[in-house]
Design brief:
Elements (H helix, E strand, L loop, with lengths): L1 E6 L18 H7 L6 E6 L13 E5 L5 H13 L4 E4 L1 H5 L1 H4 L5 E3 L3 H13 L6 E2 L27 E3 L2 E2 L10 H5 L4 E2 L2 H11 L8 H10 L3 H5 L3 E4 L8 H11 L5 E6 L7 H9 L2 E9 L3 H6 L10 H10 L3 E8 L8 H11 L4 E6 L7 H8 L25 H15 L2 H9 L6 H16 L2
Parallel strand pairs: 1-2, 1-3, 3-4, 4-5, 5-6, 7-10, 10-11, 11-12, 12-13, 13-14
Antiparallel strand pairs: 8-9
Helix pairs in contact: 7-10, 14-16, 17-18
The structure holds iron/sulfur cluster (SF4).
The site of iron/sulfur cluster has 9 residues, from helix 6.
Length: about 450
């Protein structure tokens, strides 16, 4: 039996092809819980074309909201050829009744529990329309993801690792707690260690003499050349302090560079910052979201305190850790001044990299329900829910102003003078890494 797992992709503009691709772990985890007697293949449509005439018995699709329409097209192509299609992922989980119009079965929620049942039922010719697990996945018992099914050559040479799932917060624009549950679940440290040993064999680190020599040119060069780069994909690398302390003490043994997501408040935890720095933290991805306390309260992220942003940034930088910031515009208290305000904040505080998005009220989130109730949703063309389009009516500015303003932020943040101020003249934290990160967006925004 052959199964094809597909990560769909929309048609992108040519210049966007320049942006790095990071890969993913969701389908490799699904492949890992597939019975061993089945041949599994993963196709990432962002990197390779789908062969619709390939002889497969079953197709599995996953999709976030902006790629859902493409997922439905793919499903129709396979079903036209008589191949049944199962769809999971966030969008299908939030709108199962929509998804079932295009596929044979929908997996609601995390897929690892339901997938083996789907296969059993498929073998018996009794696929059900919906699979909804009664409990969350016990991630302590998950097998390691089948990374061998992804073509490494397609991706930026870093490894992805998941150490926990879930989030106890309820930010109204975010689907993480709805999909993964509202408490953190951590993997056991021994399991993480086992995975790290495979991803970064200790004997593959650069020898000390070579490392010292290359470090004279740039201290990160040995890690780049030896591909000892790790991205921890968790929603928060500090689900609890004790776990994080143990995790990053463990990472110290691996001689690598890593980045991950953390709350802004981590800037005030000196012990953790020290440990992050010692374990090779190259960047913390901080969701600042807004500089307006009223916006933050409204989105239920009032635990972010804009008054403390500057100090948090300085403290993190003082530990030699760069900051990747994310912001959202188009919130109910945003007027036309928000674009310059965010841009100036990013440049003046020398954020090493920063992306701003238009709020995307994806189906299933509280923001979607609220805006729908208020009659402000402008379109249900899911492709536009990519955080670059205004899909709802903002309160204080027009949708056109919002889209124009977003582009203005990107152009100014990734202008040469901004890159110079933030990276070259600025605190010069891991400049090689951040020049690469900023340069690709400079290239993208030049074509606008
Ligand atoms: S934005 Fe971050 S903190 Fe808020 S719910 Fe999502 S994952 Fe949790």
């Amino acid at each position: 039996m052959n199964i094809l797992l597909i990560s769909p992709e929309r048609k992108r503009k040519r210049e966007e092809a320049f942006l790095f691709k990071l890969g993913f772990l969701n389908l490799p985890y699904i492949a890992a819980v597939t019975p061993r007697d089945i041949e599994v293949k993963i196709v990432d449509e962002a990197c390779e074309a789908i062969d619709f005439d390939e002889k497969v018995d079953l197709v599995g699709l996953t999709a976030q909201t902006p790629v859902a329409p493409r997922a439905y097209q793919i499903a129709s192509e396979f079903r036209r050829r008589g191949v049944p299609v199962v769809m999971g992922g966030v969008h299908a989980s939030m709108l199962p009744e929509e998804a079932i119009q295009y596929v044979d079965s929908v997996i609601i929620g995390e897929g690892e529990i339901s997938w083996p049942h789907v296969i059993e039922d498929f073998r018996r010719g009794e696929l059900k329309p919906f699979y909804r697990p009664t409990a969350k996945v016990n991630i302590k018992k998950l097998p390691l993801p089948r990374r061998d099914l992804l073509n490494e050559a397609h991706y930026f040479p870093l490894k992805l690792l998941e150490t926990s799932r879930g989030c106890p917060h309820k930010c109204d624009f975010c689907g993480v707690s709805k999909f993964f549950g509202n408490r953190y679940r951590n993997r056991p440290l021994e399991e993480i260690n086992r995975e790290l040993r495979i991803l970064f064999p200790k004997d593959s680190a650069m020898n000390p003499i070579g490392k010292r020599f290359l470090s004279l040119i740039n201290k990160d060069l040995p890690h780049f050349l030896k591909r000892r780069l790790l991205y921890i994909i968790d929603s928060n690398v500090v689900p609890n302090r004790r776990f994080s302390k143990e995790l990053f003490t463990l990472l110290k043994e691996y001689d690598l560079l890593w980045w991950g997501h953390a709350p802004v408040s981590v800037g005030f935890d000196e012990d953790l910052l020290k440990l992050f720095s010692e374990s090779g933290c190259i960047a913390l991805n901080l969701g600042f979201e807004s500089l307006s306390p009223r916006n933050l309260m409204a989105m239920k992220k009032g635990f972010n305190k804009p008054k403390k942003y500057k100090e948090a940034i300085e403290r993190i930088h003082a530990h030699g850790i760069g900051i990747m910031g994310t912001f959202i515009v188009g919130l109910d208290n945003d007027d036309e001044t928000v674009f310059d305000e965010i841009t100036d904040f990013v440049i003046n505080n020398k954020l090493d990299w920063a992306l701003t998005f238009i709020m995307a009220p994806c189906p299933g989130t509280d923001s979607f329900l609220r805006l729908e109730k208020e009659g402000r949703i402008l379109t249900r063309d899911w492709e536009k829910y990519d955080s670059l389009n205004a899909v709802y009516k903002p309160l204080l500015i027009s949708s056109e102003e919002l889209e124009r303003g977003l582009r203005k932020i990107w152009k100014r943040v990734f202008s040469l003078s901004s890159i110079y101020r933030r990276i070259i003249k600025g605190p010069r934290i891991h400049p090689l890494f951040y020049l690469i990160m900023n340069w690709q967006f400079y290239r993208l925004t030049r074509s606008w």
